[in-house]
Amino acid sequence: MTTEETETVPRVDPATTTGEREALEQWLDFHRVTLARKCEGLDDAQLRTPSAPPSDLNLLGLVRHMAEVERGWFRKVLSGEDLPWIYKTEEDHDRDINVTDEDTYEEAYATWQAEIAHARTLAAGHDLDDLGVGKHRTGRTFNLRWIYLHMIEEYARHNGHADLVRERIDGATGD
Q1: Any alpha helices (H) in the chain, and if so which ranges?
Q2: 3 occurs within a structural domain
């Protein structure tokens, strides 16, 4: 599957008069969809195209990275699941970004969407003030509110990167 074969991913603007939790969830979903839209219409070779030397940053790697981030914050930190990383290895901590010709968008997208589904399910069972039962690599504990805010920040930052990478590939700009 290439992104050329997909329909435009629908994105809903977050409501302007909603409660805190709904706003956090809507903004996180908005940014999740934004990243998917940045990848639309490109084949795997284009999705592997790095931003600009010396950086190896690429859209396929960003999708893989965000699958790791979803897993890390929701499954490992919030839920305390003892899981291996999806792409990262001891030999290559940036394996999510360091893609090869064998790595595909189809696999990365499916993995990312599965991690998002897990994240939604886990978050639904917690209040914003609930502390995660797992520990971050720093040893610190975080509540769900902080995790939501961090995830929004993480996606927003990487969506800015995705803007630049996409513009380099085919000149497409916009949110």
Answers
A1: 20-39, 44-47, 59-70, 105-124, 144-170
A2: no
pLDDT of amino acid 164: 94
Q: Is 112 helix (H, G, I), strand (E, B) or coil?
A: helix
As a dihedral over the C-alpha atoms of residue 171, residue 101, residue 155, residue 23, rounded to 10 degrees, the angle is 100
Model-level pTM greater than 0.85? yes
Q: What is the CATH number of the domain that holds 127?
A: 1.20.120.450
User: By C-alpha distance, which of 98, 115, 130 is closest to 32?
Assistant: 115
State in Å, rounded, how far the first CA of the chain is from the last one. Answer: 23
Is residue 53 a part of any domain in this protein? Answer: yes
Q: What is the mean pLDDT of each run of 10 residues along the chain (175 residues)?
A: 55 93 98 96 95 92 98 97 95 94 97 98 98 91 97 97 95 83
Q: Are 69 and 151 in contact (CB under 8 A)?
A: yes
